[in-house]
């Protein structure tokens, strides 16, 4: 029996195949169902003194159905040659045979599922009448956030802040083409006070969003900083909010926004209210009132990649599309 070659998905095909309402719904079902714990990402030093490099692996599986692994390489000196520092590939395999099903552009998959997980959390944590979104950052994930949040909230206005004005204006034009009323901002503190949802997607090592600037009822979404040395919020933002995470294991091992307040003795890990499994399954409540400040901290979970990869690959199988229509 001849084994067909795995299907390759480009970044453009990932974008086209993972519409946000569908992806958010799939992630919600995955987190609600739960399952066995997945490994936190593992890193290896693989470069040389002249060309330092790091390999990250993120495996996940659903027994009897699917398994996959995201491979990420980080070679910082690539930028000297005009190459990107980060490269990524996702390999999806059949869970019954182990045979490869798909090779997927890893960066596009990561950007899409990260923004969708942010929107899933917002569905439980932001006010239903949230209309103004502040995006902090101008990278690839930041560019996805307005569309993702608009899938769950009536977002009309997008405030956009970035350190480099040369990157703010092109992104603002792209978002305007998607139908958003976009306003680039230079005063971040003021913009935080005007927003219903503040979503940060940066690699900052210093606080950008300060608790003193958050007005009652704001939802703070922190998805950029993903190591203990990084942070996007100050201690006051964490101590003044009800805090939620994507997974306990990942956030309490890697999230500097939480680990640094813990190390300073001003906050405790036990104050995390819930993770996405508990929110999506209804085991714990999200927002309790219009005036409270909520905070969602994510560092990424391998099960999100697997869910998105399955959704992308299964979307081309007629029998699954028909079952979805009938169901």
Q: Report strand order across the widest sheet.
A: 9-8-7-10-11-14-12-13
Major sheet attributes: 8 strands, parallel
Determine the CATH superfamily of the largest domain: NAD(P)-binding Rossmann-like Domain
- What's the number of extended β-strand segments? 14
Give the name of the CATH architecture of the largest domain.
Answer: 3-Layer(aba) Sandwich
Q: Which structural category do the helix and sheet elements fall into?
A: alpha/beta
* Alpha carbon gap, first and last residue: 33 Å
User: Into how many domains do the coordinates divide?
Assistant: 2
**Which geometry do the CA atoms define?**
globular
Low-confidence runs of at least 5 consecutive residues: 318-327
What is the average of the pLDDT values? 92
Order of helices and strands: EHHEEEEEHEHEHEHEEHEHHEHEHH
Protein name: Ornithine cyclodeaminase family protein
InterPro entries: NAD(P)-bd_dom_sf, ODC_Mu_crystall, ODC_N
Family: Belongs to the ornithine cyclodeaminase/mu-crystallin family.
Q: How is the topology of this model organized?
A:
Elements: E1 7-9, H1 11-17, H2 20-33, E2 42-45, E3 54-62, E4 66-74, E5 86-94, E6 100-105, H3 106-125, E7 132-136, H4 140-150, E8 157-161, H5 165-177, E9 181-184, H6 188-194, E10 197-200, E11 219-222, H7 235-239, E12 242-245, H8 248-254, H9 256-263, E13 272-275, H10 276-281, E14 294-297, H11 302-314, H12 318-326
Parallel strand pairs: 1-6, 7-8, 7-10, 8-9, 10-11, 11-14, 12-13, 12-14
Antiparallel strand pairs: 2-3, 3-4, 4-5, 5-6
Helix pairs in contact: 1-3, 2-3, 2-11, 3-4, 3-11
């Amino acid at each position: 029996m001849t084994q067909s070659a795995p299907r390759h998905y480009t970044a453009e095909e990932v974008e086209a195949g993972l519409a946000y309402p569908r992806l958010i719904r799939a992630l919600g079902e995955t987190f609600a169902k739960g399952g066995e714990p997945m490994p936190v990402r593992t890193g290896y030093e693989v470069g040389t003194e002249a060309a330092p490099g790091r390999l990250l692996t993120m495996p996940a599986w659903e027994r009897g159905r699917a398994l996959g692994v995201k491979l990420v390489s980080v070679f910082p000196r690539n930028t000297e040659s005009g190459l990107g520092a980060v490269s990524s590939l996702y390999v999806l395999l059949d869970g019954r045979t182990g045979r490869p099903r798909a090779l997927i552009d890893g960066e596009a998959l990561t950007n899409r599922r990260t923004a969708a997980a942010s929107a899933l959390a917002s569905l439980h944590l932001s006010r239903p009448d949230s209309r103004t979104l502040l995006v902090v950052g101008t990278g690839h994930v930041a560019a996805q956030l307005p569309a993702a949040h608009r899938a769950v909230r009536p977002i009309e206005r997008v405030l956009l802040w970035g350190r480099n004005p040369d990157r703010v204006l092109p992104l603002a034009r792209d978002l305007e083409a998607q139908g958003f009323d976009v306003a680039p901002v230079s005063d971040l503190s003021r913009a935080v006070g005007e927003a219903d949802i503040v979503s940060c997607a940066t690699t900052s090592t210093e606080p950008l969003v300060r608790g003193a600037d958050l007005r009652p009822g704001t939802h703070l979404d922190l998805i950029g900083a993903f190591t203990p040395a990084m942070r996007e919020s100050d201690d006051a933002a964490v101590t003044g909010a009800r805090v939620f995470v994507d997974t306990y294991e990942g956030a309490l091992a890697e999230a500097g926004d939480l680990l640094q307040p813990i190390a300073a003795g001003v906050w405790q890990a036990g104050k995390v209210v819930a993770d996405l499994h508990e929110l999506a399954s209804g085991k714990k409540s999200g927002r309790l009132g219009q005036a409270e400040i909520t905070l969602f901290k994510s560092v990424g979970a391998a099960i999100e990649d697997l869910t998105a990869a399955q959704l992308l690959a299964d979307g081309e199988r007629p029998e699954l599309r028909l079952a979805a229509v009938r169901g």
